[in-house]
Design a protein that fits this description.
The structure holds 2 protein chains of 2 kinds.
Chain A (H helix, E strand, L loop, with lengths): L4 E7 L2 E7 L7 E6 L3 E9 L6 E8 L3 E7 L26 E7 L8 E6 L2 E5 L7 E2 L1 H4 L15 E7 L7 E6 L2 E5 L7 E2 L20 E7 L2 E9 L3 E4 L7 E2 L8 E7 L7 E6 L14 E4 L7 E3 L17 E3 L7 E4 L5 E4 L7 E4 L5 E8 L1
Antiparallel strand pairs in A: 1-2, 1-27, 2-3, 4-5, 5-6, 7-8, 8-9, 9-10, 11-12, 12-13, 13-14, 15-16, 16-17, 17-18, 19-20, 20-21, 21-22, 23-24, 24-25, 25-26
Chain B lengths: L1 E5 L13 E5 L6 H11 L1 H7 L10 E5 L2 E2 L15 E6 L5
Classes of the chains: A mainly beta, B alpha+beta.
Chain lengths: ~375, ~90
């Protein structure tokens, strides 16, 4: 039976939804949903009886919010009161939601939101409303975290796939932090990750981590795309080793793991910090099938000349179909998809606003 | 005293379809006090106008007596009986 897959595409000016009912051979694209909002974060939560789309939407005029749809985008709901709001005593106000991450399967009502300014929020009603995780907000390192170019945000949230007490977050700048006690305490987890822009290039924290990914079946193994550097941890973030050898560059934003095959990981390298283009203007995804020991370029169906755009940190993802699908969106509004684990690619949409994030799932 | 808040069309849905709100506030009330009263009636409207610390959204303008409140005393601007507050989204975006 053909798999039905939903692809959510968050852009600078709204959300587009692509649906395939023929095992990702063809796509029906609708949108813009939530027009004139920037959609930095989107999630497709398939743990409940019906898939729920969650979108972090920010109107330049009217501020940030989280909207949810339980009918695949036909209608959207928001609570009357702000779904993500800092408590009065913090003196902080939400700028935008950067990440929406459903919790483990065993806690189907738990959803996390990583936000700007750098903070983590937790929902226990499926993402309708959230509460600040105070322990991370009160972390003594927080006053030393500094904003990168895009703003100071927790842009990555990785709930452990089975242990509700374990969560990994990452921010730019600040680095990686982990909790193993349900958020009572948080430890910096950046040992071995370089911060070339600091006097001490290997500090306890302060790294400009761009993205972290973890495989659900091998949760001790993490992959990290740094602001200069690509790394792997085999001990849940306690230490990191470079896996950049074999890539054309160690700079980039996203990193994605295969949904079913542990140790299979994908990157989208850019030339360098000061030259943020795909090398030679060629759109190339790199895949490793041995946890980063060796890398191979994937180019079939991707433009191999004049591709001077970039793929942002959340604009590259995998679905959970079998064989796995991969999706990447560019700042120039093109979305490419592969239904054969990256071997070949085809265009799903083009001429969209800047693509900020993509997420896909079997629905 | 009574103050009238005039809303742009894009916000009518957050105020039960209303384009104008007549608000009863204390004599000499500030814009903050007016918006606090509005928030009690229409919380979904308030969060379009202000953040969770009651800060005015940067790209929403509040004209009091024909002058944008930030040229007066901002959210602390005092209003007179019968005053009108025109809420107008500013020019923003790309």
């Amino acid at each position: 039976m053909a798999q039905s897959v939903l692809l959510a595409i968050g852009t600078r000016k709204g959300l587009w939804l692509a649906r395939s009912r023929d095992d990702r051979a063809g796509w029906e694209v609708t949108g813009p949903h939530r027009p004139m909002t920037d959609v930095y974060a989107v999630a497709i939560d398939t743990r409940g009886p019906a898939p729920r789309i969650l979108a972090g939407v920010t109107s330049e005029h009217f501020g940030p919010s989280v909207a949810v749809s339980d009918d695949l985008g036909a209608t959207w709901q928001e609570p009357e009161h702000p779904p993500v709001a800092f408590p009065a005593e913090t003196g902080a106000a939400l700028t935008r939601v950067w990440q929406l991450a459903p919790g483990p399967a065993g806690a189907p009502e738990v959803v996390y939101a990583g936000v700007e300014p750098s903070a983590l929020f937790r929902s226990t009603n499926g993402g309708v409303t959230f509460e600040l995780v105070k322990s991370l907000w009160d972390h003594p390192h927080r006053e030393h975290w500094t904003p990168g170019y895009g703003g100071m945000a927790i842009h990555t949230v990785l709930p452990h796939p089975s242990d509700e007490k374990r969560v990994t977050v990452a921010m730019s700048t600040g680095g990686v932090y982990c909790t193993s006690d349900g958020g009572e305490s948080w430890e910096a987890a950046n040992n071995g990750v370089r911060a070339h822009f600091l006097p001490d290039p290997y500090p306890e924290f302060g790294q400009c981590v761009h993205k972290v990914a973890v495989h659900p079946e091998r949760p001790e193994q993490l992959f990290l795309q740094n602001h200069g550097g690509v790394y792997r941890s085999d001990d849940a973030g306690a230490s990191w080793s470079s896996i950049a050898e074999g890539l054309p560059s160690d700079f980039g934003f996203p990193i994605v793991v295969h949904p079913h095959r542990p140790g299979v990981v994908y990157t989208f390298p850019l030339s360098a910090d000061l030259r943020r283009f795909p090398p030679e203007g060629r759109c190339r995804v790199y895949r490793s099938e041995d946890a980063g020991s060796t890398w191979s370029p994937l180019t079939a169906g991707l433009p191999q000349e004049g591709f001077w755009t970039t793929v942002l940190r959340d604009a590259f993802c995998a679905d959970d179909a079998d064989p796995a699908g991969l999706y990447l969106g560019s700042r120039s509004g093109e979305v490419y998809a592969s239904r054969d684990e990256g071997d070949s690619w085809g265009l799903v949409a083009q001429h969209l606003p800047d693509v900020l994030c993509v997420r896909a799932a079997v629905v | 005293m009574r103050v009238t808040v005039l809303l742009p069309g894009v916000l009518h849905a957050d105020a039960d379809g209303r384009s104008r709100l007549d608000v009863e506030v204390a004599e000499g009330a500030t814009l903050t006090a007016v918006l606090d009263t509005v928030a009690g009636l229409y919380p979904a409207l308030d969060r379009r106008l202000r953040d969770e610390q009651r800060g005015l959204r940067r790209y929403v303008n509040f004209y009091v007596g024909g002058e944008e409140c930030r040229r007066l005393d901002g959210a602390a601007t005092r209003l007179a009986d019968g005053a009108e507050v025109h809420v107008i989204p500013s020019v923003a975006g790309g």
